[in-house]
Amino acid sequence: MKRRTGALGALILAAAMLCAPAVALAAEDDADPGEIIVTVPDGGPTTGTPIRNAQFRWGLNAEAGAGAFAGGCNFLSAGRAGDTGRGGVVWTESHGLYRASQGNVRIEKPSAAGEYDIATWAGRCLDPAGNAVTSASVTSTSGNQVVIDGGAGVRGADGSVEIRWTGSFSVVFYGGMTYWSASDPVLVMDAAGNGRVTATASGFGASMEDLTKWEALPEREIVLAEVRGASTALGQGFAVVPQYLGVQVSGVGQVARDAVNESFWGSFPASFVEYQKLTGQAGYWVTTGGVRDRAKPASTLYVSYDARAAIVPDLPATDTGGAAAPQNPVRLRPSANSAAALAPSVPTYPLADASTAVPPGEGLVPTLQGGLQNPVVVPLLGTAASLGIAIVAVLNIMQLLPWQRPPL
Question: Rounded to two decimals, what is the model's pTM?
Fold first, then answer.
């Protein structure tokens, strides 16, 4: 019976994701003339004050702790997650894949008491008030953050910084149906507070269209975060919101910026999103016109030069329902003819090779294309999906489904 119910869950997921709030794909836009390409220095300081125990703290974005359309929620896990062996699997505690800490890495969540505590399996889908996070609200998030101690490097006399951390963390969406890992982050930043955080990405390729698809992905160095104008005056470290707002990428269905979405329109770095096309998560790291767009902008990144005297992160704000709100200050992009458009500058990131794009529909993000844009079609599809689920449920009860996969 276990494999029958597991297969039934996969079918229900496919139907639910078909009817979920959709994402509209749009043609690529030309670069905004007000956007300026910035060259970040390749190397950091070679001499200066040694850093021996720096702390890296980041929640990536609100979506990384939000409710999911299927599988319960999205969450962070310490370490490099193992292989479930096949697609369509929602993690359970017995899988042993989830970790609250491993080596220098731990996952922390804000509590109702106003403190950050070590995350737990039981609390991974709860907001600070103890309510289950929900995909129905973009302000509902757990607020979980990855924390890595033990960073080593040097801080130059001019304020430039290079720090390397050892350890991995995993970004788990749809309860585990799609996940990837980032290992050994490196921060290189110049005296003006401009730089980037890179890491080695790894993970598994999944697909909404074919829940049996599951393949190990090659390791690749990606840019986790582009940093601009971080304040280096504070000897303790710095807190900065990485680039997202105003960043344009191509080949991943980023919609055009308009008066409605301009306050939250943008993207994570190009190499980051390029890798997510392989994992099936690309649509959750770029503005796609979906109902979750407001939860996608990057949240505050904290870097402390000494973990023993770390910068205290802000607690997520809570709405009237007690749900945590994303830490994404709204920053309107300056117009092209504004003097402020030159500082800080926001680059345009073209993707490396459009031929590597995943065909539409292969990601795990609900999409809306072609005839589906007709407002009558979506309700009809929902009705059809509900009928299909009911039929499958009856067949499952009668034990007439020919499932052949062995249980995990």
Answer: 0.72
